[in-house]
Write a structure and sequence with these properties.
There is one protein chain. With 328 residues, the chain is mainly alpha-helical. It has two domains: 104 residues, no CATH class; 161 residues. 87% of the residues lie in helices and 0% in strands. It is built from 14 helices and no strands. Helix 4 packs parallel to helix 11, helix 5 packs antiparallel against helix 6 and helix 13 packs across helix 14. The two termini are 37 Å apart.
């Protein structure tokens, strides 16, 4: 290749990467969304007979659920901001009624004040970054619509380009075999997340119903969605609900919800349920699933909840591919 052409291509590539970098996580998530929702789109297509309508329905449902989650979070933050001046008075009355000594009540009030201050500070940071999050959400939904709608075309063009670059039928066949294995692995990941989400939704509904939390069904749906989109995490649902119980003086309900949410809604799905179910269906060892779920966020930040399982699935697919080649 001519040196000038190579340099010009390299410059264009660097510029494209610089432009795409701020939205790289959104683009990856949109591509993954388009890939995973193909079976759902195909089923909807049987009734709509149009790919664009089916894609619009799926994106609309996703957008509606995420928008409801945003509204719920903002309403909770605004409610706490308006009522932050309570300074533990309601809690003090409840502890007095339970016969707790004043010394311990003062300690609880002091710690509660620190928690409220920290929560308000984090809430302000959240609201400052809300505009960027909304832009990313809009971009994700926009790209997802086209990846869902045009996925078959994207795959066809990619294979043609790959065939021209490789120009080797044997290598091209091996690549298609690997992509088929990779697709099967990722689909198993998705459907197991979906199954875990249903279980977590029922477990959350039990907790919110027992504690008398308002909008128990709605909060349960949000908890299930937090499993499907692990970047959201279930604690964003049960911690505000716990804060509400503290505010109204339901100390035991708040304590139960905090412990139950931490153990049953956060630790149990992440450390046992998801690794166990995923390993059974996709032949990925539970340790690798757990490493992906925990190591991803630690290395990449919040988006690592998405990247971690993707990388683990990619590694397992490479292993399965070479295993099939050895056994041929």
């Amino acid at each position: 290749m001519d040196v000038k052409k190579f340099i010009s291509y390299l410059i264009v590539l660097v510029l494209v990467l610089l432009v795409v970098k701020p939205l790289f996580d959104v683009i990856v998530l949109a591509i993954l969304t388009g890939f995973l929702l193909q079976p759902v789109k195909d089923r909807i297509n049987k009734y709509t007979k149009r790919s664009d309508v089916s894609s619009a329905i799926l994106v609309g449902l996703i957008g509606l659920f995420v928008f409801m989650l945003f509204l719920y979070g903002i309403s909770i933050l605004l409610s706490l901001a308006q009522k932050a001046a309570i300074s533990g008075e309601t809690i003090s009355r409840a502890l007095h009624a339970a016969g707790v000594q004043q010394t311990y009540i003062d300690i609880v009030n002091e710690q509660f004040g620190k928690i409220v201050s920290w929560f308000m500070s984090e809430s302000q940071n959240f609201l400052r970054g809300l505009s960027v999050s909304l832009i990313k959400l809009a971009v994700w939904l926009f790209i997802s619509f086209y990846t869902i709608k045009d996925w078959n075309y994207i795959v066809l063009v990619s294979r043609r380009l790959l065939g021209k670059v490789v120009n080797n039928k044997l290598v091209e066949r091996d690549i298609e075999t690997f992509l088929s294995i990779l697709g099967g692995t990722y689909k198993q990941f998705f459907f197991q997340y979906l199954f875990v989400a249903v279980i977590v939704g029922f477990l959350a509904f039990f907790a919110y119903t027992v504690t008398g939390t308002p909008y128990a069904a709605f909060l349960s749906i949000l908890s299930a969605l937090a499993v499907i989109f692990p970047i959201l995490t279930t604690y964003l649902v049960y911690l505000p609900a716990t804060a509400w119980h503290l505010y109204v003086g339901h100390i035991w309900s708040a304590l139960f919800l905090l412990v139950y949410g931490t153990v049953v809604l956060s630790v149990f799905p992440a450390f046992y349920l998801t690794p166990m179910l995923t390993s059974r269906k996709s032949n990925i060892h539970p340790v690798l699933v757990l490493v992906g779920l925990i190591g991803g966020p630690m290395f990449f930040g919040p988006i690592g909840f998405v990247y971690g399982p993707l990388i683990v699935g990619l590694g397992q697919s490479v292993y399965n591919y070479y295993l099939t080649k050895v056994l041929e």
